[in-house]
Amino acid sequence: MKKTFSKIAFFASIPVLFFTTVSYKSDFFEIAKQLEIFTTLFKELNMNYVDETNPADLMDTAINAMLEDLDPYTHYWNEQEVQAARIDNAGEYTGIGATVGIKADKIVILEPYKDYPADKAGLKAGDEIIKIGNINVADFNEDAGELLKGAPNTSIDLTFKRRGEIKTTSLTRGAVEIKAVPYYKLLEDNTAYIVLSQFNRNASAETIKALKELKDQGADKVILDLRGNPGGLLSEAINVANIFVPEGQLITSTKSAVEKYNQSFSTTRKPIDTEIPVVVLINGRSASASEIVAGSLQDLDRAVVIGARSFGKGLVQRPKELTYGTQLKVTISRYYTPSGRCIQALDYTRRDTEGNAVRLTSKDYNEFKTRNGRKVYDGGGIAPDIKLETSEFSDITNAILQENAIFDYATNYYYQHELKTPEAFEFTDKDYSDFLKYLETTDFNFTTATEKELEEVMAAAEKEGYQQEISADIKEILGSISSSKEQALTSKKAEIKSLLSEEIIKRYFYKEGLYDYYVKENPEILKAKEVLKDQAQYKNILKG
């Protein structure tokens, strides 16, 4: 019955959330009609349903069912989520100082921050919190992560499980600063290496501070690392690009069905340095504001982009205030790079048989030109000028990540090996063989897109009576796919080893140690240094 209601509410409640922005585009009578239908349905259902109903739960179901059919970035925020978004943008909050994963019966510590409360209390990545104060996480029906939050200088007792052993600890909550630039360093060849991990309110200020300090130390080249940066504030993306390009330069524009959201965004400040050679590093987890920076600097031939194709999020969201402190974060437009590219990779207006948004393919891409006439394309993120295998995430790598196999293996490795410095670490072929054996113990398996297609073929063949005729051929194809999947663990060894190395290094030396390791060993940074060192190569790439 509830499922039926959610579908009715899905259609009937659409005007409730979009009335203020799109009413002028639709027939007013139709909107008023649907509002009245929904209101009367909701009242009658709550008054007459055979069992007791919870109006708030029913409404949440209706709202979420409606938004589920749109893109994944348009969603409803309750009061707690509104506050969390403000914290993300502000760059500071009060808590335990750790990244955590929330599961049904436990909270997993993913990464404790150095010298913050969780770290001081002895918590380590892989620890599973099962009790907070007197509350069992498994018995808590709401978001258990909220139990970790609280006022500054308040204490909490934690019971956690480490490798099967139950332990306890206490910690005092404190202010946690989320740095947009968690690491910067002058490398030995006078290259400024700057990691920009998110676009909060401090992103451009921290990047400028880092660059000025490193230039004072003698930096004459820059590596801006945007790998894994999920984005953030559009204004900060403009300001970061402004560091390297002149005032008044178009960085991005937005196009929408609502005219007032059609805007152009140009730089408004004096730049820090418009001549210093720049390399930008990106990968498949660089999204949104990261893609604005990388795409604009590429279009303006201001930087060489190295790594792997970025995520492809070319949609812009804006929060709309609702009642009782809630908000609707709604997608209002698409953004475009200076050359005119929209880098959105998924088309949410088209769905496959499983209901997933269709990914644009290369045949759908359109060609554009950079300022110097280089060919660039839309439709699927920012493609790097120099593509590196170690930056890419293949299907099998994504499947391994989804199973948390790399995280869990790193936990085991940490408790079985001693490591004194990042420089002393080497993930050998023997270690990789050990990882493959570990995968076997986890019953790891993943289904390829081809296998899914074959399942549909078999179902259709069975319905039409052709199953017997094609079963031998299907079996042979599945055997070939199985063999290819096994080979993928070998052919994608470089990217998997790179991820394993990163996760293991963080266990011993935190994120700071990981970056110290990066500047010596990371293939993308080594390639960036090589390109910057060879100025003829650097200029030729930008000339096309």
UniProtKB/TrEMBL annotation:
The UniProt entry, under PANTHER family, shows:
CARBOXY-TERMINAL PROCESSING PROTEASE CTPA (PTHR32060:SF30), TAIL-SPECIFIC PROTEASE (PTHR32060)
Gene3D superfamilies, from UniProt?
Answer: 2-enoyl-CoA Hydratase, Chain A, domain 1, 2.30.42.10, 3.30.750.44
Annotated keywords: Hydrolase, Protease, Serine protease
One GO process term, biological-process aspect:
proteolysis
Q: Does the keyword Protease apply?
A: yes
Q: Does the keyword Protease apply?
A: yes
Q: Which family does it belong to?
A: Belongs to the peptidase S41A family.
Recorded GO molecular functions are: endopeptidase activity; serine-type peptidase activity
Give the protein name, as stated in the record.
Answer: Carboxyl-terminal processing protease
Query: One Gene Ontology cellular component annotation?
Result: outer membrane-bounded periplasmic space
**Domain PDZ per the UniProt entry, residue ranges:** 81-153
Write down the PROSITE patterns for this protein, in alphabetical order: PDZ (PS50106)
Cite a single Pfam family from the UniProt record.
PDZ_6
